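FORM 12-B: Structure-to-Sequence Request
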């Protein structure tokens, strides 16, 4: 592709936001799609340089589209950060007002309750680490096959990295976590995996070798999970090694994992999704949803309950959504503990609901902080909440939003918390 020089329009303005100054624009509207792709772009030949091939009209359109997306995403992130700061400040002010209206004894009790809550969260985090270390030493293996890097576009690989981050967190929160094994981590895939914030501190097995090489003496125990398989898993076998295809391709490559497993002569199976839930589309889940489903099943030993906790509502058929809306929601183990600890006489159902909501929010916040607090620095992070096809296990069912973060320090990693990681 020929190099180009992009002329940045010079616009006089009385006021300019920090973001606009940083980006060299005064109005995001100047990036409107109606703008001609040829405006402000010239080749080196036109600028007096050596003669080079001109960019095609489609290439110029893609370049402009990418520039507009980057600017708008940067603007959106700044606005979101400002909004979250404002909300945090409001909460602080509300807490100050609440404490100011308390007696000395009430204030002491409230502060003590908050302190105990922080200590409990730290203790739970350490317990999760202990469980992960135990799993790393002798837990059941769960493989994510990352040998499909060459079949994905750059933005699809970024989306897969986001799914890996969610997968790690969901597994770490499980009462009986798996030993996660990332195999086939080579080339561009290796660069992006090791670019995840805090990856060096992850308690996982990461190898350039394939799963066939790593488990050469246990090939009879390998089971590739694919929606195209004929056999259905009814319960998990602790002696089996389950493999999830790590690919995001929006179903471009049909029966990819099925054909791969068949050519390698290893067993295949599909999850019992259709037996317990009616879906609006294909019985295909993202990588992180498959990981979470397996973790939940190990805890509950019930596919129905596990699926209702994991499968997004948007993927369910209309009558299935109505049925679930009229029945009691399945509680996770943390929410059940909060319900049992709640005092009915101190607030009845309202108090119980408040406790459940606080517990769920705390668990989700812990998920977002887990990875960004483990690493001190990183070279580059690419995060796109996306979807993929996993050759029968993951497909495009979530909106993508690209984020590029460079040179983060431990303090700047805190910003990732506000971005929903």
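FORM 12-B RESPONSE
SEQUENCE OUT:
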């Amino acid at each position: 592709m020929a190099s180009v020089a992009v002329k940045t329009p010079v616009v006089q303005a009385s006021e300019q936001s920090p973001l606009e100054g940083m980006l060299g624009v005064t109005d995001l509207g100047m990036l409107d799609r109606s703008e001609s792709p040829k405006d402000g772009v010239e080749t080196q030949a036109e600028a007096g340089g050596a003669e080079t091939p001109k960019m095609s009209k489609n290439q110029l359109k893609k370049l402009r589209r990418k520039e507009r997306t980057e600017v708008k995403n940067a603007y959106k992130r700044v606005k979101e950060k400002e909004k979250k700061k404002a909300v945090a400040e409001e909460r602080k002010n509300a807490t100050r007002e609440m404490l100011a209206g308390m007696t000395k004894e009430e204030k002491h009790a409230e502060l003590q309750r908050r302190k105990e809550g922080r200590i409990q969260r730290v203790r739970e985090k350490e317990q999760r680490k202990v469980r992960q270390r135990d799993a790393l030493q002798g837990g059941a293996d769960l493989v994510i096959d990352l040998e499909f890097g060459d079949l994905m576009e750059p933005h699809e690989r970024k989306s897969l990295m986001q799914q890996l981050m969610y997968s790690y967190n969901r597994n770490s929160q499980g009462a009986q976590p798996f030993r996660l094994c990332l195999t086939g981590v080579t080339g561009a895939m290796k660069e992006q995996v090791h670019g995840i914030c805090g990856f060096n501190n992850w308690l996982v097995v990461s190898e350039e070798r394939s799963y066939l090489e790593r488990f050469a003496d246990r090939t009879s125990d390998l089971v590739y999970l694919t929606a195209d398989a004929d056999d259905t898993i009814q319960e998990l076998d602790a002696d089996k090694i389950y493999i999830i295809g790590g690919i995001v391709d929006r179903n471009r490559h049909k029966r990819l994992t099925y054909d791969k497993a068949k050519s390698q002569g290893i067993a295949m199976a599909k999850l019992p999704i259709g037996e317990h839930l009616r879906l609006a589309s294909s019985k295909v889940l993202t990588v992180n949803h498959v990981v979470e489903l397996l973790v939940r099943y190990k805890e509950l030993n019930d596919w129905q309950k596990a699926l209702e906790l994991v499968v997004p509502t948007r993927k369910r058929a209309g009558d299935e959504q109505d049925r679930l809306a009229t029945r009691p929601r399945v509680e996770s183990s943390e929410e059940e503990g909060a319900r049992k600890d709640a005092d009915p006489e101190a607030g009845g159902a309202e108090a119980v609901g408040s406790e459940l909501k606080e517990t769920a929010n705390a668990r989700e916040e812990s998920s977002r902080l887990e990875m960004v607090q483990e690493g001190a620095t990183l070279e580059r992070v690419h995060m796109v909440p996306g979807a993929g096809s996993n050759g029968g296990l993951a497909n495009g069912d979530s909106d993508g939003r690209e984020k590029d973060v460079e040179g983060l320090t431990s303090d700047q990693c805190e910003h990732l918390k506000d971005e929903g990681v």
